[in-house]
Amino acid sequence: VQLQASGGGLVQAGGSLRLSCAVSGIISRLYEMAWYRQAPGRQRELVAGINSGGSTNYAESVKGRFTISRDNAKNTVYLQMNSLKPEDTAVYYCSAAIRQAIYWGKGTQVTVSS
Q1: What span, in angstroms and rounded, lies between the C-alpha atoms of 67 and 29?
Q2: Which of 21, 47, 87, 94 has the fewest C-beta atoms under 10 angstroms from its C-beta?
Q3: Cα(58)–Cα(10) distance, rounded to whole angstroms?
């Protein structure tokens, strides 16, 4: 199982980025997919999740700015991030979970300058 996150980078405050998580080895549409982030010195936190039925949930801090989506044909999950703020700076990780199993990808760095 591999989860390959990409799309991170350096952006100015107010800008946008789209993260992608390409999944292989599992059928991602059967899993609950999620994006987490971890800033230096802080715990990893849930940013957004999408379940197998397509229902989504978001951290309060990103509601209205971030959108999680999935393309089942491409076995890929996305995180559209708009109106980025410096406090969104972190390493972003995607995950896939089903029952007792959870898989993690390597992170992608997002840096938002003020």
Answers
A1: 17
A2: 87
A3: 23
| pLDDT of 29 higher than 90 | no
Q: Residue 110: which pLDDT band, with cuts at 50, 70 and 90?
A: very high
Residue count of the chain:
114
Which residues have CB under 8 Å from 21's CB, separation 6+? 3, 4, 5, 6, 33, 35, 76, 77, 78, 79, 94, 105
Per-residue pLDDT of 37-95, as tens digits, reads 999 999 999 999 999 999 999 999 999 999 999 999 999 999 999 999 999 999 999 99
Residues 6+ apart with CB under 8 A from 99: none
Q: Angle CA(87)–CA(88)–CA(92) in degrees, nearest 5?
A: 140
Cα–Cα distance between 38 and 47 in angstroms, integer? 10
Listed residue (11, 20, 31) closest to 108, CA to CA: 20
pLDDT at 26: 87
